[in-house]
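Retro notes
What went well: the complex prediction finally ran end to end.
Inputs used:
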Amino acid sequence: MKSDIILSGVGGQGILSIAATIGLAAVDNNLYLKQAEVHGMSQRGGDVQSHLRLSDKPVASDLIPFGSADLILSVEPMESLRYLPWLSKTGWLVTNSNPFINIPDYPDVDEILNEIKAIKNHIILDADLIAKESGSARSGNIVILGAASAFIDMPFSSLEVAIRKLFGRKGQDIVDANLKALNAGRKLSDAYRK
Amino acid sequence: MKKLLLLGDEAIAQAALDAGLSGMYAYPGTPSTEIMEYIQSSVDASARNVHRTWSANEKTAMEAALGMSYAGRRAMVAMKHVGLNVAADGFINSAMTGVNGGLVVVSADDPSMHSSQNEQDSRFYGKFAMVPCFEPSNQQEAYEMIFDAFETSEKYKLPVLFRITTRLAHSRSSVTLRDAIPEKKLSLPVDPLQFVLLPSIARRKYKSLVSSYEEVKFDIRLSKYNHFKDGSNRELGIIACGIAHNYLIENIGESNKEIPVLKISTYPFPKDLIKDLTSRCREVLVLEEGAPVVEESLRGILDDGMKILGRLDGTVPRDGELNPSIVARSLGLPVESGRDVPSLVKMRPPSFCKGCGHSDVFNSLIEAIKPYGQGHVFSDIGCYTLAALPPYSAINSCVDMGASVTMAIGAADAGLHPSVAVIGDSTFTHSGMTGLLDAVVKDSSITVIISDNSTTGMTGGQKSQATGRLEQICLGIGVSPDHMHLITPLRKNHEENIEVIKREMEYRGVSVIIASRECIQTATKRKKDESANA
């Protein structure tokens, strides 16, 4: 098995928490993992991407070759399009519909959504709204992770375990809200594909 | 066996701790910063009281590490590639003095300049200093190599260069740990003149340095990381260095039986293994991240031997980071591609955080300097360099740490008035102070604005050596108290701050304006920590 995943968004949107959650779950499943992430200045409101590779065999390259990502998981709609050269023909694109507008020439949101809809395998969710309903407005990233979990070759429960571990020190309320966000994302994604 | 999920940087840090490290020295710089951060947050390092505070710059870090080595204990110093330029004086001469306790110098290169001014290759420095150099290809190997680097350093009494690139530094993978070994005891050098580079001593030491460089390459501690795997194809053999080996394996597979492959991960590189490979093939392709260091050595000055493919003939792009698709192309393999990026996708450059004090500094400066037109502001390296971009477009230079002050001096010498330098607090203590001393001594007509956010902001908020000391430092250097101003860059002080800047720009002499407001990121983190501890 292998899952090559591009995580994308803007600095500060919680991409690295998603990566950490998947990473923890992968270790629990005895999978090989490589995860390349962006540090430094580009985090200051710039675009951020992370390559995450899971496999039951050793992973050689830290970077995913073009045209072979199984999944683009994005917490921002325009950012999901920036990484299309990596997406394989059968890959899925899962994205938040809420734009993060910190540039003067941010394109028309409907045009962005139309571009996304032109991709055969896509899921667009209002993750911020779902997060709010789950009790933690800041867990939009975890909603998207939940929605994308259908395309990551690991048991869903191991992501729940990872969230308990990762958010454990922040208190039970935060853990519960994130678990709720994860489950809500997954449920909507399952419904979306029917 | 204990396993951890670690960044390359973290694997290096963990390995150093497990190898009995007594002192870690560094100045923050992407992509090397996380090495020190990991050691600073390590419970083990804290329990053992391993030295682990930031240094003023890479040179002071390098020299302090050499001092710890002098005292017989294991020390590590880490920096980004351009930081090695700053530390080069101490680094090159540490090869001459040699070491006592093991000394590992980690330099993190940044091909493709993700957050750097150039993409220089630290392996040149290894050759220049004539010291052993390790270049790991993955996180586990980075971990293993640190043990061997310390032992090699102690065996040959030489510092060891440890070269990584961005992708390894900032990629996470599972790492299996070894049993930790205890720290070394304090012990002085056997030869009391070892660290004394008087010319007569230095000449003797240089001879032994030159001879040891040849000797080092056959040492098992280094050579076990280089291996040659033969293949049935007699057309093309491949030399892959460090992380480039991963990209190659991604394309041809671990069990490749066709292409002969030589993996090189230590320098001086193994001539005998290269012969093994080249004697079997008609052509050779060199894959290395960074500059064509190995390729150039193979070509030599006559370049009339076998056909060599690589960065110099365009088989591999001459600049930039490697990736599996670039390597596939250089092998002549088909490269897959997904869809093109739709044209509506816009660039999203980094920008000032909401509520950043630097932006208020520039808002006032832009207005104060308006009557003089463009071209008067020299800047430095830090978050504030973003003022080069719209909507500010307010700075005209960013060259190296400290160059704002010294370039302003030169421009003022040429007759440019006003000549304004903008520098951050951390950069000021890194390399700005000495330039300011020059300015004071020469009575240069410059205005220095220290945009003080009380942290090293760009690399994620490390402690700045300048916090609480800037005013004292400037006065101590000799700045006149009449032309030293403290301002607070807030919107409500905008008019007042414009007046101060205007007045000091008109003054023909050295003036310093310290604009202090804590970095918004650091402040948020600090408040969070405080409430968590309350």
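What we learned: Residues 18 and 180 of chain B are 4 Å apart (CA to CA).
What to try next: split runs per interface for comparison.
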